[in-house]
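Please fill in the sequence for the structure shown.

STRUCTURE ENCODING:
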């Protein structure tokens, strides 16, 4: 009889340690842009291009959220693959306007063709996938057989997983965030596709929202404009200005804490803040207070002394309250 005594063990300990990425982030200088950097703070990208070491690199929670995103991406890939419409994945592509910096990146998926969701359902069942994914595949089978008997056009698909709060914000606006728009547009521009899809997955309840991005028009305008700004800063060696911690978002007609600051890898270097928690503590409550006053101002309600104090704060921060209230735009 063995003298070895079985020990208690912890699934959580094994799981958590397995998700720890021991690799250190590198900060080598480079002369090209990543598609995933577009739409983010120009000053942050400028520092990364010049090899400046991050004072606030992604923490373990951020890395785990990234890994969670990989899980959702894998599930989408599995469904596309089993349905026979996955053409390619992680497609490297680059584009460069004359005189501007080259942009390079990897597209999640290229999909299209004649789907075979009957096969997808059978194989998902064989893999013992959760019932929810099987039901989704069955629903897609019926939908695509009815609506697209001739097959599906080929197009790039970029998958993004979001918290419930971020998902609700984009859902209310029915549009993609600027950085995701630019990232997908880069793939369209590089590979010559007519249109593509950003597929948002809500991590809280598994809802999905799709946003279509077209190759040209306003999407190209913002893409090229951002690359121009970054190229001019890089070639002139002039650091772009830092971001404002609170901004006015005309899409939702509200003040909001600037995510480009809160998620900055140079939060301490540029803004003197220890971490995102300090940023949240200083700037997350103010937009809600300003928005309440903005609503009262728009509705011509009587201003209390506290309301008047907030109006002064808004003006001192450089916002034109009258312009915001009247036309939903901002003068800074």
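FILLED IN BY: designer on duty
SEQUENCE:
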């Amino acid at each position: 009889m063995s003298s070895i005594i079985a020990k208690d063990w912890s699934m959580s300990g094994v799981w958590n340690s397995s998700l720890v990425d021991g690799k250190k982030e590198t900060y080598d200088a480079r002369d090209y842009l990543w598609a995933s950097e577009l739409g983010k703070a120009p000053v942050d990208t400028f520092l990364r291009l010049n090899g400046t070491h991050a004072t606030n690199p992604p923490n373990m929670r951020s890395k785990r959220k990234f890994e969670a995103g990989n899980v959702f991406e894998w599930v989408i890939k599995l469904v596309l693959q089993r349905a026979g419409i996955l053409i390619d994945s992680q497609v490297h592509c680059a584009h460069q306007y004359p005189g501007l910096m080259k942009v390079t990146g990897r597209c999640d998926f290229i999909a299209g063709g004649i789907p075979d969701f009957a096969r997808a359902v059978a194989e998902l069942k064989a893999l013992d996938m959760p019932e929810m994914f099987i039901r989704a595949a069955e629903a897609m089978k019926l939908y695509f057989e009815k609506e697209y008997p001739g097959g599906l056009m080929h197009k790039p698909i970029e998958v993004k997983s979001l918290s419930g709060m971020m998902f609700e914000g984009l859902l209310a606006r029915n549009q993609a965030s600027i950085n995701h728009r630019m990232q997908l547009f880069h793939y369209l521009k590089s590979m010559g596709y007519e249109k593509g899809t950003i597929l948002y997955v809500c991590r809280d309840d598994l809802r999905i929202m799709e946003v279509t991005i077209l190759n040209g028009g306003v999407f190209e305008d913002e893409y090229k404009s951002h690359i121009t700004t970054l190229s001019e800063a890089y070639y002139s060696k002039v650091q772009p200005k830092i971001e404002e911690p609170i901004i006015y978002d005309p899409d939702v007609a509200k003040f909001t804490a600037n995510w480009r600051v809160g998620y900055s890898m140079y939060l301490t270097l540029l803004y003197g803040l220890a971490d995102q928690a300090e940023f949240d503590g200083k700037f997350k409550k103010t937009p809600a207070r300003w928005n309440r006053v903005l609503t009262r101002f728009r509705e011509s309600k009587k201003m209390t002394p506290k309301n008047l104090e907030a109006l002064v704060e808004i003006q001192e921060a450089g916002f034109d309250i009258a312009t915001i209230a009247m036309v939903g735009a901002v003068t800074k």
